[in-house]
Amino acid sequence: MEVIIAKPDELARLAACAYEQLLRRRPDAVLGLATGSSPLAVYDELVRRHTDEGLSFAQARAFNLDEYVGLPAEHPQRYLNVIRHDFTDRVDFAPGAVQGPDGLADDLAAACTSYEDAIAAAGGVDLQIMGIGTDGHIAFNEPGSSLASSTRIKTLTEQTRADNARFFGGDVDKVPQHCLTQGLATVMRARHIVLVATGRSKADAIHQLVEGPVSAMWPGTILQHHPHVSVLVDTAAASRL
Ligand code: GLP
Is 66 in the pocket of ligand 1 (CB under 6 A)? Predict the structure, then answer.
């Protein structure tokens, strides 16, 4: 695990560089994408490189980490819509190249299995970007998640629903109670993981992630077992290291 402490705009450049180097080498790479505010500056930097420098995603494929259960197809907070708005519709991904778990499926368990199959059929994720929750969750693997988990249905914690209420007009009751999320074993199969965290609210989670014992109570700590993880943090997020 490499830990890089820098200013937020420099972190975004570093993460974007990892994507650019991969895509210049392998234009048909499989990209792992994440919602949340942490990757936004990275997406903005990738859009800039697409617009100004011709970085192309036309042959790439992308898989989202997670999805709320039950949000209508056109709901702006459905993660597939969020990622389109924040990133993928601003560059040149081919139609259908960006996928997420299907939170509207009649059979949610089957949707989870077919999502795992789709990632495997694509050859696995080459480069996964992600944030981390204040309670140490990655994707939507909340504290207590099995370290060996695959894509599955999870119940969101009250803390995560409260954290995410800001995206639902501040009304926690509008935040779905369930989600589909890549499991910790799924995430661990990505060949390179870039985790971005900024701000004091992430300091405990980053402290545990980097220095804590590996534990299901801080799900991000599983990344200590991954051979190629880059943790990109600002000084506030690094303040407990
Ligand atoms: C959500 C997402 C996570 C993300 C977390 C942190 O719960 N499912 O993937 O890491 O939020 O979000 P933010 O980056 O906005 O702090």
Answer: yes
Contact of 194 with 127, CB cutoff 8 Å: yes
CATH number at residue 179: 3.40.50.1360
Asked if 12 and 42 touch (Cβ cutoff 8 Å), the reply is yes
Is 240 contained in some domain?
no
Contact 233, 11 (CB under 8 A): yes
Q: What is the number of residues in the chain?
A: 241
Which pLDDT tens digit goes with each residue over 90-137? 999 999 999 999 999 999 999 999 999 999 999 999 999 999 999 999
Angle of helix 40-53 relative to helix 8-25, nearest 10 degrees? 50
Range of the domain at 6: 2-227
pTM of the entire predicted model: 0.96
Q: How far is the CA of 137 from the centre of ligand 1 (A)?
A: 8
What pLDDT score does 159 carry? Answer: 87
Nearest-atom number in ligand 1 for the CA of 132 is 10
The per-residue pLDDT for range 43-77, each reduced to its tens digit, is: 999 999 999 999 999 999 999 999 999 999 999 99
Q: Which residues of 110-139 are buried (b: 16+ CB within 10 A; e: fewer)?
A: ebbebbbeebeebeebbbbbbbbbbbbbbb
